[in-house]
From TrEMBL:
<dbReference type="Pfam" id="PF04055">
    <property type="entry name" value="Radical_SAM"/>
</dbReference>
<dbReference type="InterPro" id="IPR013785">
    <property type="entry name" value="Aldolase_TIM"/>
</dbReference>
<dbReference type="InterPro" id="IPR058240">
    <property type="entry name" value="rSAM_sf"/>
</dbReference>
<protein>
    <submittedName>
        <fullName>Radical SAM protein</fullName>
    </submittedName>
</protein>
<keyword id="KW-0949">S-adenosyl-L-methionine</keyword>
<keyword id="KW-0408">Iron</keyword>
<dbReference type="InterPro" id="IPR051198">
    <property type="entry name" value="BchE-like"/>
</dbReference>
<keyword id="KW-0411">Iron-sulfur</keyword>
<dbReference type="InterPro" id="IPR006638">
    <property type="entry name" value="Elp3/MiaA/NifB-like_rSAM"/>
</dbReference>
<feature type="domain" description="Radical SAM core">
    <location>
        <begin position="14"/>
        <end position="233"/>
    </location>
</feature>
<keyword id="KW-0479">Metal-binding</keyword>
<dbReference type="InterPro" id="IPR007197">
    <property type="entry name" value="rSAM"/>
</dbReference>
C-alpha cells in the first residue's frame, strides 16, 4: 500500500506485499539493464526530503498499524547516508507499530558506502536489503549492461551481511541464453556461494518486446532457453552451490516454470531430485520469451 501521486509504475519484492511503500526515489539510477522493463517509463530523481516527510506523515495517519515499510524505487540505497538515516528515523517515529524497513540495493550502491555507513543504517532500523545479482558470469553481466562485475557483487553482498543486514538476493535464470547457459549457471553458483545470502530467489527471464534484449533475440545474437533449458540450468546452478550457512532458496516466482524451494545446503539434493523428475517431461525445442502465464 502507498499514498502517492508520483509518476511511473511501483515495484516491490513479493515478501513486501503488506508493507507501506515509500517512494523516496523515483525510478532506478542505473536503468540501462537490457533485460529490465521495470522503470523504463520513469526518469530517475531523488525526491526532496520535505516531500518524503509529508508522505510519511500522511501514510502514518492513514495506516497507523503498518509493521513493515519498503523504501522504493529501484535502488533506494543510492541516497546519501544522511538522507537515508533521516528517512529511517522519521519512519520509526511516525509509524508506531513499525518493526522492519527494507530496500532494494545495487552492488554499486553497497560498494559506494563504507562499512561504518552500512552499520549505521542497519542499526537505525534498515533491516533487509534486496540485491539483484542476476548473474555471476562477467560476460553475461557485460552483455546485459548490468553495470557491475562478479567480484564487485561478491564484495557488495559480503559488506551487507557484515553490517548485519538480512540479504535477499535474486538471480535470473536464462540470462545467458543458450549461448552461455553453462557459464551462467556455474559462475552464478560461485557468486552466491561466496556471498551466502540469507535468502536466494531464482527468477526466470522474460523478454517482452519493450526491452533491448528483445532486439538481440530478433537479430539472432541471443537465443532464449527452452523449458527444459531453464530446468537444466537451475539444476546445474543448484548442484554447484556450496553454502556454508543456512540460506532459504526459492524459485516459486510467477516467472518460474517449476516451483522449487528449500533450505540450502541441506535440501540441495532433494531439490535436484525434484528437478530430475521434471526434466524428461520438458520441451527442449522451443526457445521461450517467457512463461506463458506472463503474457
Ligand atoms: S535490473 Fe535493477 S539495476 Fe537494472 S535497470 Fe532494472 S531496476 Fe535498475
Amino acid at each position: 500500500m502507498f499514498i502517492d501521486d508520483a509518476e511511473g509504475l511501483v515495484f516491490r519484492p513479493p515478501s513486501e506485499a503488506y508493507s507501506f511503500i515509500l517512494r523516496a526515489t523515483i525510478g532506478c539510477s542505473h536503468n540501462t539493464c537490457t533485460f529490465c522493463p521495470m522503470y523504463k517509463e520513469s526518469r530517475f530523481r531523488v525526491r526532496p526530503l520535505d516531500e518524503i516527510d509529508g508522505i510519511i506523515e500522511r501514510g502514518a495517519a492513514a495506516y497507523p498499524h503498518i509493521r513493515r515499510l519498503f523504501i522504493a524505487d529501484g535502488d533506494a540505497l543510492v541516497l546519501r547516508t544522511d538522507q537515508l538515516l533521516h528517512i529511517i528515523e522519521k519512519c520509526y517515529a511516525s509509524f508506531p507499530a513499525l518493526t522492519r524497513i527494507g530496500a532494494y540495493a545495487t552492488p554499486a550502491d553497497l560498494n559506494r558506502k563504507t562499512p561504518e555507513e552500512l552499520k549505521a543504517l542497519h542499526d537505525a532500523g534498515l533491516a533487509i536489503l534486496y540485491m539483484g545479482i542476476e548473474s555471476g558470469d562477467d560476460a553475461v553481466l557485460t552483455h546485459v549492461n548490468k553495470g557491475t562485475t562478479a567480484a564487485a557483487t561478491i564484495t557488495a553482498g559480503q559488506k551487507a551481511l557484515a553490517a548485519g543486514f538480512k540479504l535477499s538476493a535474486m538471480i535470473l535464470l536464462g540470462l545467458g541464453g543458450q549461448e552461455r547457459t553453462h557459464e551462467h549457471a556455474l559462475h552464478t553458483a560461485d557468486v552466491v556461494s561466496a556471498i551466502n545470502p540469507t535468502m536466494l530467489s531464482a527468477l526466470s527471464l522474460i523478454i517482452p518486446p519493450t526491452v533491448p534484449l528483445y532486439e538481440d533475440v530478433q537479430r539472432g545474437t541471443f537465443t532464449p532457453l527452452t523449458a527444459k533449458g531453464f530446468i537444466r540450468e537451475l539444476r546445474e546452478l543448484l548442484a554447484h552451490t556450496e553454502m556454508t550457512r543456512p540460506c532459504i532458496f526459492r524459485s516459486n516466482h510467477v516467472s518460474n516454470l517449476a516451483p522449487v524451494g528449500g533450505n540450502l545446503p541441506q535440501d540441495k539434493e532433494k531439490m535436484i531430485q525434484a528437478l530430475d523428475l521434471m526434466l524428461p517431461h520438458m520441451d527442449d525445442t522451443t526457445p521461450l520469451l517467457g512463461n506463458i502465464h506472463n503474457f
